[in-house]
TrEMBL record:
Subunit relationships: Monomer.
Cross-referenced InterPro entries: AB_hydrolase_1, AB_hydrolase_fold, AB_hydrolase_sf, BioH
Protein family: Belongs to the AB hydrolase superfamily. Carboxylesterase BioH family.
Enzyme class: hydrolase
Function statement: The physiological role of BioH is to remove the methyl group introduced by BioC when the pimeloyl moiety is complete. It allows to synthesize pimeloyl-ACP via the fatty acid synthetic pathway through the hydrolysis of the ester bonds of pimeloyl-ACP esters.
Organism: Stenotrophomonas nematodicola
UniProt binding sites for substrate: 18, 78-79, 139-143, 231
Span of domain AB hydrolase-1: 10-237
Official protein name in the record: Pimeloyl-[acyl-carrier protein] methyl ester esterase
Keywords: Biotin biosynthesis, Cytoplasm, Hydrolase, Serine esterase
Length: 253
C-alpha cells in the first residue's frame, strides 16, 4: 500500500474517501505539513495503490496501515472514516480520531434516521457495471453539491480522480459494500480516545445532524460544523478545517 510521508512533527494519518486517493488532501498538506508529519494513504485499488490487491475490508486495511505508520492521530474523510474509526477502536497506537464528513453508519435505519437510503449505494453499484465513468462523475457531483464553492470543488475532484489513474472497479465495489453494510456505532461508547467530528453544513451524503448524533455517543468528543461546507469541506474551507485539526491535536499533549 502506498503511503506518502510529508512534513515533520506529531504524526497524522489521513485516509481518503471512495474513488479518490491521498492527493485529495493537498489543501490540508499546504496548511499542516510545517507542523505535522502527514501520512497520506492511497487505499488498495486507488491512486498509487491501484495494483494492491489487499481486500478493502476494515481489519485488512487498518492492520496494513498501522504496520507502516508510527503512533498517530488518524483522520478519515467519508469512507476513510470507517477505517479510522475501526483503528481508533482497536489499536493502541491510534492516539486520537478525527472524522471529516464521516459517520459510523452511512445508511438509514429505524434508529438512525440522519443518513442516506440503502438504495443509494445499491444503485451506485449497479450503475458502475454499466457506466463506470458516468457513475464516478455523479458521485463527485454529490461530493461537491451544496457547498458554496461547489463548482470549484467539483473541478478539483475531477482533476484529482484521474491524477493517479482511475481506481480499480473491484475496489470501488468493495468500498460501496463497506458503505452499505458497516455499522460501527457500537464502538463509540467505549472509545477511550478523544475524537473530533467535522461536518459540512450542506453535505448531501453525511448530514451534520448525523455526525453530531455520532459524536454524542462517544466520550471526549467534539463536533464542529463548517458553515456552507459540502461533503469535502477541506477543499472549499481548508483554513477552517486545518485550524480545527490543529486545535484538536494541540489539545492532546
Amino acid at each position: 500500500m502506498h503511503i506518502e510521508v510529508l512534513g515533520q512533527g506529531p504524526a497524522l494519518v489521513l485516509i481518503h474517501g471512495w474513488a479518490l486517493h491521498g492527493g485529495v488532501f493537498a489543501p490540508l498538506v499546504d496548511r499542516l505539513s510545517a507542523q505535522y508529519q502527514l501520512h497520506l494513504v492511497d487505499l488498495p485499488g486507488h491512486g498509487h495503490s491501484r495494483e494492491d490487491t489487499t481486500p478493502l475490508r476494515l481489519p485488512h486495511v487498518v492492520n496494513a496501515i498501522a504496520a507502516a505508520t508510527p503512533p498517530a492521530v488518524w483522520c478519515g474523510w467519508s469512507l476513510g472514516g470507517l477505517f479510522a474509526l475501526h483503528a481508533a477502536a482497536t489499536l493502541p497506537q491510534v492516539r486520537a480520531l478525527a472524522m471529516i464528513a464521516a459517520t459510523p453508519r452511512f445508511v438509514r435505519a429505524d434508529d438512525w434516521r440522519h443518513a442516506v437510503e440503502p438504495a443509494v449505494f445499491e444503485q451506485f453499484g449497479q450503475d458502475l457495471a454499466q457506466d463506470y465513468r458516468g457513475t464516478l462523475e455523479r458521485f463527485l457531483a454529490l461530493d461537491a453539491m451544496g457547498s458554496e464553492h461547489a463548482r470549484q470543488e467539483l473541478r478539483s475532484l475531477r482533476e484529482m480522480l484521474v491524477a493517479r489513474g482511475e481506481p480499480a472497479p473491484r475496489a470501488l465495489q468493495e468500498g460501496l459494500r463497506l458503505l452499505e453494510t458497516t455499522d460501527l456505532r457500537g464502538a463509540l461508547p467505549g472509545l477511550g480516545k478523544p475524537s473530533l467530528w467535522l461536518a459540512g453544513q450542506r453535505d448531501r451524503l453525511v448530514s451534520a445532524t448525523g455526525m453530531q448524533a455520532a459524536a454524542a455517543l462517544a466520550p471526549a468528543a467534539h463536533a464542529h460544523v463548517v458553515a456552507h461546507g459540502g461533503h469535502a469541506p477541506f477543499l472549499g474551507h481548508a483554513d477552517e478545517v486545518a485550524t480545527q485539526l490543529q486545535h484538536f491535536v494541540a489539545g492532546l499533549s
